[in-house]
């Protein structure tokens, strides 16, 4: 799966799944712009990729701030003239019983996991429609497909992101733009490693393959949806969870 001559933007590319996605798309030949609120982490990820011979740049991006998104968009478009692939990976959550959630927590979860992909996609979609080509990938979560105890609002936000991807896919199919969704199960990232060890062990125990996903395995699914191999695939949701969720 080659992406030679393509430019991709990857939100949340400083670490975890986003970093793996940026590296995977760049290894396939794309020029990649990492956008992350962790500016130093983004620059470090880009520098590491360039040292390996990949074309990766980074800029600060807060997906909850429209001005930040606009500035990131201008940098990415000024550099390459167009963006062919949008990979919405940035997200955040915390395991906590719903009754203990504060309203500020709800807003942060929804802003990052639902409105972030909405706003970033909106910022880059216009030129894709004009030239009638493009790939949009939303990285949601299996929590959004089947629910997850202790992640109620997160599950709702990710479920919204899935529905957003499906609906947008219908709207822009006439412009030859593909919109698809990747739903990871529990994945070995810094965010997951921050949860109590008993929760990590529980995730492994309930996964039929008895391990966590590797970020690179999620990135491979994103690569498929970003490549020409998926030109007749749109509005689809691909679970990468080691068999944890098998619901339709």
Short description:
The chain has helices at residues 16-27, 39-51, 66-80, 103-131, 143-146, 152-172, 190-193, 197-206, 215-226; strands spanning 7-11, 31-36, 56-60, 85-88, 134-139, 177-184, 237-240. By secondary structure, it is of the alpha/beta class.
Give the spatial strand order of the biggest sheet. Answer: 3-2-1-4-5-6-7
Shape: globular
**DSSP summary: helix tally:** 9
Radius of gyration (Å):
17 Å
Tally of strands: 7
Helix content: 40-55%
Query: What number of domains?
Result: 1
The CATH architecture can be named as 3-Layer(aba) Sandwich
Strand content: 15-25%
Query: Biggest β-sheet, characterized?
Result: 7 strands, parallel
- The CATH homologous superfamily name equals NAD(P)-binding Rossmann-like Domain
Alpha carbon gap, first and last residue: 27 Å
Q: What is the CATH first-level class name?
A: Alpha Beta
List the uncertain runs: none
The computed structural class is alpha/beta
Mean pLDDT across every amino acid position: 93
Following the backbone from N to C, one meets helices and strands in this order, namely EHEHEHEHEHHEHHHE
CATH fold-level assignment: Rossmann fold
Describe the model.
The structure is a single chain. By secondary structure, this protein is α/β, with parallel strands linked by helices. The protein has a single domain, classed as Rossmann fold, CATH 3.40.50.720. 48% of the residues lie in helices and 15% in strands. The chain has a seven-stranded parallel β-sheet with strand order 3-2-1-4-5-6-7, sandwiched between helices. Helix 1 packs across helix 9 (215-226). The longest helix has 29 residues, at 103-131. It is globular, with a radius of gyration of 17 Å. The mean pLDDT is 93.
């Amino acid at each position: 799966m080659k992406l030679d001559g393509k430019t991709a933007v990857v939100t949340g590319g400083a670490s975890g799944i986003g970093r793996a996605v940026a590296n995977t798309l760049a290894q396939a030949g794309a020029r990649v712009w990492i956008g992350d609120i962790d500016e130093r982490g983004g620059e470090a990820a880009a520098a590491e990729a360039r040292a390996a011979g990949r074309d990766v740049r980074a800029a600060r991006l807060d997906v909850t701030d429209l001005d930040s998104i606009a500035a990131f968009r201008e940098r990415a478009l000024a550099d390459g003239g167009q963006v062919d692939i949008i990979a919405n990976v940035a997200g955040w959550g915390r395991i906590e019983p719903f009754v203990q959630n504060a309203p500020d927590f709800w807003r942060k979860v929804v802003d990052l996991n639902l409105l972030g992909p909405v706003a970033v996609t909106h910022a880059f979609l216009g030129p894709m429609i004009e030239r009638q080509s493009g790939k949009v990938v939303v990285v949601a979560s299996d929590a959004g497909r089947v629910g997850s105890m202790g992640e109620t609002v997160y599950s709702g936000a990710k479920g919204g992101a899935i529905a957003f991807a499906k609906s947008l896919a219908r709207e822009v199919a006439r412009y030859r733009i593909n919109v698809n969704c990747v739903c990871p199960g529990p994945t070995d990232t810094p965010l997951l490693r921050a949860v109590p060890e008993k929760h990590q062990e529980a995730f492994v125990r309930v996964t039929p393959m008895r391990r966590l996903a590797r970020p690179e395995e999620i990135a491979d699914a994103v690569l498929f949806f970003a490549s020409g191999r998926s030109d007749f695939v749109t509005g689809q949701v691909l679970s990468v969870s080691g068999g944890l969720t098998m619901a339709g």
